[in-house]
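Quick sanity check, BTB domain-containing protein:
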Amino acid sequence: MSSESIQIKDLINDCDTLSNITKLLSKTNLNDYEIHKKFDYLSSCFDIQISNIEDIRNSDILCNNMYDNEKVSINDMKTILSDQPKINFEINNFISFSIEDDTEKLSDDDKIYLASKYSSFFQFIIDQFPNVNELNISNGFDNISSSCLILHIYEKLKSTKIKKAGSIFFDEILKYAEKYNFSKHGIFDGLPKLHEIYLYIRSNTNYNNLSNINGSIKDFLGYIAKIKDVRLIIGFECADNDSLENALIMLNYGKTLNLNIQMDHDLDWNKYLKENNYNLSEGRINIKDETKSLMVSIDEINDFKVLKILLNSLENLQYIVIYVENSLPKVILDKYKSLDDAKLYLKELFNYRSCLKNLTNARISFGKYYTPPDDSNGENIKHLYNFMMECIISILPSSISKLLYLMEAENMTLEIFEKIGILFPSLTTISFLLCYNIPENALYKIPSLRNVAFNGERKVNIPPWIETVVFLYFDSDFYYPDDVVSDNKNNEHYFNLMNNRFNVSLRCIKENDIYYIAFLKNFEKWKDLDNLMRICY
C-alpha cells in the first residue's frame, strides 16, 4: 500500500461524517478503501405540544422524538441534538412533526404567533438533518386542520432542501381561503425546491358553514399550478361521496391548469367491482386514470377476476400490493381433487399477462400455509402453493423494475427466481420479509438486480453485480434470530451469510442492538439508503 493510500485510509478512519468521507474520496481516483462506520439511531419524527395552550406567549414548546420518551423543552431538545455526533443525522431523508395542541379556540393572531413559534423550532430541526428532503406536518386533533395552523407554519418555513410536503387537509384549505389569498401569502414560497404536495380530504366533514368552496379550490390550485413541476397528490376515502365529489372537482379543474394530479384512495376494488357487475361507474372511471397505487386482497377464487381487471385497465398504475389468502391452494385442490386438474385450472385462470407500462413496484404476500402432518394431500398442497405463486408473479408486467417485495412466500424454488429474472429484465431491487426458505443461489438468476433487502437474516449467496445489501431489524415480529446485539455480530457473520465481501458497511445501533446494517460496493450509495429501506420494509 502506497503512502498516499495509507494517509487516505487514516483520514477516512478519522472522519466523523459520511459527507466528509465523500469529499475525501472525491479527491482521489482510488475506490477500494475499507470503510466501516457505526452510528446511533436517531429518530426524525417529533411530537410537539405547547406547555400551556391558555398562555401560548409565555409557555414553552415541549417535544420528543421517541414514542416512549417524556417531552422536554425545545431548549433541552436543542441541547440533546447538539450533543449528537453529526453522522447520526446524515442518513435520514424524511422528517415529521406531529402537533398535539387543540388550537381551535385560539384567536387568529394567537394561531399565527404559535405558528411562528413552531416554525422557528422546525427550522432548527430541519437544518440539523443535512439530507432531509421530505417533510410531513400533521395534527393529533380533528379540529386542528380548520384552525389553519399547519398552513401558517408552512408559510413561515424556509428551506432549499424540502422537495415533498404534507399533510395538508382539504377543510384547512377551505378555511384558509376564507381569510387569506394563497398567491399573496405564498404558503410554499419558502420551499423553492418543492415538487410534491400531499393533500387529504377527510370523510364525514361538514362544509355547510363554508362559503364559495369552488372559488377556494380554484384559488388554491391556481397558486399550486404556479409552482414549477409540482405534483399534487389527493388522498381521500372513496366510500364517502362528498370526499369523492370534491376530489373530482379538484381533479377536473386541475386539468384545466395542466396540473399534475395523482389520486391516493382506499377504494375496496374487490367489493366495488363485485357490487357493480365488474364494471367501473363514471366517478370511478374518472379516478381510474389518476390512480397510481392500490391494494387488493385475494380472499376467494373470484377475486382473481378483480385482479385481472385492474392489471389490464389502470394504465397509470405504478404500485400494487397483493395479499393472497393462504388457504386457496387447498380450496382449489379440494374442488378439483387431482393436482394436474388443479394446475390446469390455474393455468386457465392466469392465461394472460398485464401490459401496464407504468407499474414498476409490486408487493405480494402469499400467506404462510400450514398442513397437518397427517394430511395425505400435504405435498400436493405445497406443490400447488408454489405453482400458484409462480402463476401470480407471471401475470405482472415486464415494467416491474424498481421493487419486487415478497412477503411470507414459503419454500420458493429456484425455478421461481429463474422466472423472475426472465419476466422482469430490468428489476433492480428485491426485498424479503418472513421468507424462510430462499434457495442459496436464487439471486444469481436475476442479473439486473442491484439492491437486496432482508427483513431479518437469511443465508443467500450474493452475486458480484449486487451493489447494496441491507439487513433490517426494525420490528422483532419480522425477523429471526432474536439475537441482534451488535457486539455479537461482526461483519464476518454477514459475509458468511452472503458468501461475499463488501468494502463498505454502515451499521446503525439502537440501544446496543443492530437497527440495520448496510453493505455497499459504492460508498456514494449511502445517500440512497433511507429511501431504499423505507420501500423495502
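Posting the structure with no commentary besides this: The chain has a mean pLDDT of 91.
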